[in-house]
Specification:
The chain is α+β, with helices and mostly antiparallel strands and 357 residues long. It contains eleven helices and 15 strands. Helix 5 packs across helix 8. The two termini are 24 Å apart.
Length: 357
């Protein structure tokens, strides 16, 4: 992309906002890794992953002062008849928004997002924050929809096991007794098989296999594929991200047998063990929608739900988006999707899921 510059009069003369070019990626990532507000989902690799996997348009803005990056804001455009026209944090990334070292940089990046949103004529702009960025600002709205589950873990397996509530701990021990084992794959083949089987049973379109392969290729050792087997047979699998001292299990799924052998329960315990041994001290179970089975499952592990203050700024839209599987208008689609043969669902899913971020 060609770099552009704008600088509001109120900003310091040396503070400007630009679009990331290929030669900026190394210093972009160096900033993200050092910035306390940044997350794994601010890394530059997401641009190529999202653009190549889903053919979506992205803008990676950064604020620069005296030749140094002082703030970043990755944005992605969604344009769909079913889900509307929006600009916001990277599609399929649970965290995102401005990560900056100063209020001035944050304001400048907000201004770039506002300008782009108006030029594109979107319905709304969305930031996916861990902490509210505009509290009390009437121009920004929040809604009670998503929570995240984050919990400290130690380097001691016994301590981590004992921190799991009794009923859930019994499920983990069931998987252990039934001979489940975990191993790391260098490709996404088995993980995709387990994931595709799982989401089909939930009535959700599947991501393209290419997407998972690009995640593994782009993020290398920071993206791990862990597979659970029983006597060599595939039971479950999870793709996780490692970030600073955190592990983030992000895409997981199980074969039909997983329910009978506590496959998913064992899988997350096996990941927790491996992550703790690798030095991770925070287990991020990721976001879930209120009132869903995933929400209940994570609570059963003793994790406390933390509200995610996603923020929305309305433009052409008159109300906040409601792209939620609990929304009654999507229930018929979910029921129909569950009835599709799995090979057909895997063929059609990637053409639909690009708008489901």
């Amino acid at each position: 992309m060609v770099a552009t510059e704008t600088a509001p009069a109120a900003a310091a003369a040396s503070l400007s906002v630009k679009l990331m070019a290929p030669h900026d990626r190394a210093r972009w990532d160096a900033f993200v890794r050092a910035c306390p507000d940044a997350t794994f989902f601010h890394l530059s690799g997401w641009q190529s992953v999202i653009e190549q996997s889903f053919k979506l348009k992205t803008w990676f803005y950064y604020a620069e002062q005296d030749g140094q990056i002082v703030g970043v804001l990755p944005l992605c455009e969604i344009k769909s008849r079913l889900f509307g026209h929006a600009l916001g944090a990277m599609q399929f990334c649970v965290y995102g928004g401005v990560a900056a070292l100063s209020d001035e940089a944050r304001t400048l990046l907000d201004g770039a997002a506002d300008k782009l949103a108006r030029e594109l004529g979107v319905g709304h702009l969305e930031y996916r924050n861990l902490v509210a960025a505009h509290p009390g600002d009437p121009a920004w709205h929040t809604k009670e929809l998503y929570v995240t589950f984050r919990k400290a873990i130690s380097g001691d397996d016994e301590e981590n096991m004992n921190a799991i509530p009794r009923k859930q701990r019994a499920m983990v021990r069931k998987g252990i007794k039934l001979g489940l084992v975990g191993e790391v794959d260098d490709n996404v083949d088995r993980m995709f098989e387990a994931y595709a089987s799982s989401v089909h049973r939930l009535g959700t379109p599947v991501f393209p296999k290419k997407y998972f392969a690009l995640l593994k290729e782009t993020f290398g050792d920071e993206c791990e594929v862990r597979v659970i087997t029983q006597n060599g047979a595939l039971v479950a699998a999870v793709l996780s991200f490692y970030w600073r001292d955190e592990v983030v299990p992000y895409y997981g799924g199980g074969m039909p047998i997983a329910r009978d052998v506590a496959g998913n329960d064992f899988m997350y315990w096996n990941l927790m063990q491996a992550a703790a041994a690798r030095g991770a001290r925070l287990f991020d179970f990721g976001r879930s929608k209120l009132g869903t089975g995933a929400y209940d499952f994570k609570k059963n592990w003793g994790f406390t739900a933390q509200h995610l203050p996603y923020e929305y700024k309305l433009y052409a839209a008159s109300e906040l988006p409601d792209n939620n599987p609990l929304n009654p208008k999507y229930q018929l689609f979910i029921k129909m999707w569950k009835k599709l043969p799995l090979p057909l669902a895997n063929l059609l899913g990637p053409h639909i899921v690009r708008n489901l971020g």
